[in-house]
Write a structure and sequence with these properties.
Radius of gyration: 23 Å
CATH architecture of the largest domain: Roll
CATH superfamily of the largest domain: Beta-grasp domain
Shape: globular
CATH topology of the largest domain: Ubiquitin-like (UB roll)
Number of strands: 20
Number of domains: 4
Distance between the termini: 55 Å
Largest sheet: 9 strands, mixed
Helix content: 25-40%
Bound molecules: flavin-adenine dinucleotide, FE2/S2 (inorganic) cluster
CATH class of the largest domain: Alpha Beta
Structural class: alpha+beta
Strand content: 15-25%
Length: 487
């Protein structure tokens, strides 16, 4: 395989990088190598949004179109920029004129100390590029990953609302076709690599190249969005010597539907499949909107969420409850297993050396089936779960439960079903009595632990009460049970 250099556009300039440590994050690259210090470092863990930049990339389905998204540069590996345009706050201005994402903040008095301001500007810019007629909820969603400690959010939100509807043409719109042409050229390069500080990075383009790299270098670490892996570098100061970026592998970044299944490529970011899942499973779609922030969902992937095997990952319980399967690939050989069977013990999975997750298959709903998903965290947005439960129920015409899967996160070392509680409800109707029995049975299914997020007692109580919440919601849709009902 012919190797090439990593090439991207930094605003409108072509940049080639080759002898740079691939453990470097985009934020460090901007501040320390390009001396562009407009993007700030607040947390280096994806939580504050001060480092937000915007990525423009060619649309998969229409190569003449650019797709703009906000990302956290502090947790984005520099090699993943290949083939994309990186837009930073310094270059939004057109000549002497501020961009409307900046000017509206000035006009609305949306900045005091200014530390958060570049991040808000970039989130607002990304929103405008993506949606010029957002409703208030969409504006809030776009800004939820940015924290401000002094100004207060009203003026910032007002600024973003005004900016999003602006019809002013910015410099990026003027260079649109030129940008498309350059990115198309970069995409033709094979296997971009980075080598620096004794560490290596490669970005295969298809499944064969990926399988080949993993056979040759079985100790390599895969990186998709990096929203989990990057923290091992920025927080734990780890060094990763062999990185394989899967975000450009064609077969891993597709979304397909068959008559019976939704097939999600393991390296497809949440923001690319959330609408599809929302359509079939509204509760699941609502929950995904609460995974991290817009910046995290624009890069984080399903393969990374399942692949990191965290007991508090939000997707595995939902996938287990739905009876989803996953396809694993090693050196041309594929096997498909239940997601439920993937997890063995804390952070241990059935993945073999050189094997990777290719895709995840979610069955489409049929008549009589319901999926309820409840995420319990201290904040609504951008927070990790203390407990998450997904309850899948199938009922016959007499309302008897013919099939049930209740899967919990945060209650054990791995995401896990609740066999005793399920056994109580299977073959029964949902009644106050059967629900009370299921709650009692749940206490035999789990022995949760105490940590900074919640005590063992709290976890068990909330886990039991969520079964009752599911029951109440299934009795009547009119009962206001969600926080959003009161917002
Ligand atoms: C601010 C913030 C908020 C977050 N909030 C949430 C939240 O609310 N809920 C939640 O569940 N998570 C949350 N996360 C964690 C993380 O964003 C998710 O788990 C995300 O889905 C990880 O995907 P990724 O592509 O970024 O993974 P990466 O960091 O790229 O990879 C994670 C792990 O998976 C492995 N991996 C990646 N792709 C594959 C593959 N194809 N095959 C095998 N292994 C693979 C990698 O080697 C690595 O070990 C948050 C993270 C941050 C920084
Ligand atoms: S520095 Fe806080 S999200 Fe990047
Ligand atoms: S203006 Fe100071 S943090 Fe927002």
């Amino acid at each position: 395989m012919t190797k090439s250099t990593v090439r991207f556009l930094l605003n409108n300039d072509v940049v080639t990088i080759e002898n740079i440590d691939p453990n470097l994050m985009v934020l460090q690259y901007l501040r320390e190598i390009q001396f562009k210090s407009g993007s700030k470092e607040g947390c280096a863990s994806g939580d504050c949004g001060a480092c937000t930049v915007v990525i423009a990339e060619l649309d998969r389905d229409n190569a003449n179109q650019l797709h703009y998204k906000s990302i956290n540069s502090c947790i984005t590996f520099v090699g993943s920029l290949h083939g994309k345009q990186l837009i930073t706050v310094e270059d939004l201005k057109d000549g002497a004129n501020l961009h409307h994402a900046q000017q509206t903040l000035v006009d609305n008095h949306g900045s005091q100390c200014g530390f958060c301001t570049p991040g808000f500007v970039m989130s607002s810019f990304a929103l405008h590029k993506h949606n010029q007629t957002p409703n208030r909820a969409e504006v809030l969603e776009a800004l939820a990953g940015n924290l401000c400690r002094c100004t207060g959010y009203r003026s910032i939100i007002d600024a973003a609302i005004t900016s999003s509807t602006s019809s002013e043409e910015d410099s990026f719109a003027k260079h649109y076709q030129e940008t498309v042409a350059k990115l198309t050229e970069f995409q033709k390069l094979t296997a971009p690599t980075l080598n620096g500080n004794g560490n290596n990075f490669i970005s295969p383009k298809n499944i064969n190249e990926l399988a080949y790299e993993l056979i040759n270098e079985p100790t390599s670490t895969l990186v998709a969005g990096g929203t989990d892996l990057a923290l091992s570098i920025t927080q734990n100061l780890a060094n990763i010597d062999k990185l394989i970026y899967v975000g450009n592998v064609e077969e891993l970044t597709t979304l397909k539907e068959t008559d019976t299944e939704i097939v999600i490529g393991s390296a497809l970011p949440y923001s690319k499949f959330i609408d599809t899942l929302h359509h079939y499973y509204p509760d699941l779609g609502d929950m995904i909107e609460r995974i991290g922030s817009k910046q995290v969902r624009n890069t984080g992937t399903l393969g990374g969420n399942v692949g990191n095997a965290s007991p508090i990952g939000d997707m595995p319980p939902a996938l287990i409850a739905l009876g989803a399967t996953m396809t694993l690939h090693v050196n041309g050989v594929e096997r498909t297993i239940l997601v439920e069977d993937y997890f063995v013990d804390y952070k241990k999975t059935v993945l073999k050396p050189s094997e990777f997750i290719l895709s995840i298959q979610i069955p489409k709903p049929t008549v009589g089936q319901t999926l309820k998903v409840y995420k319990i965290s201290k904040r609504i947005d951008d927070d990790i779960s203390a407990v998450l439960v997904a309850i899948f129920i199938e009922q016959n015409a007499s309302q008897e439960i013919t099939n049930i899967r209740m899967a919990y996160g945060g209650m054990a070392a791995i995401p896990k079903r609740a066999p005793a509680a399920e056994a109580v409800l299977k073959g029964n109707r949902l009644t106050k009595e059967s629900i009370a029995q299921a709650k009692t049975a749940l206490a035999t299914d789990f022995q949760p632990m105490s940590d900074v997020r919640a005590s063992d007692k709290y976890r068990m109580t909330v886990a039991q009460n969520l079964i009752e919440k599911c029951y109440l919601e299934m009795q009547s849709q009119k009962i206001a049970t969600r926080v959003v009902n009161y917002a």
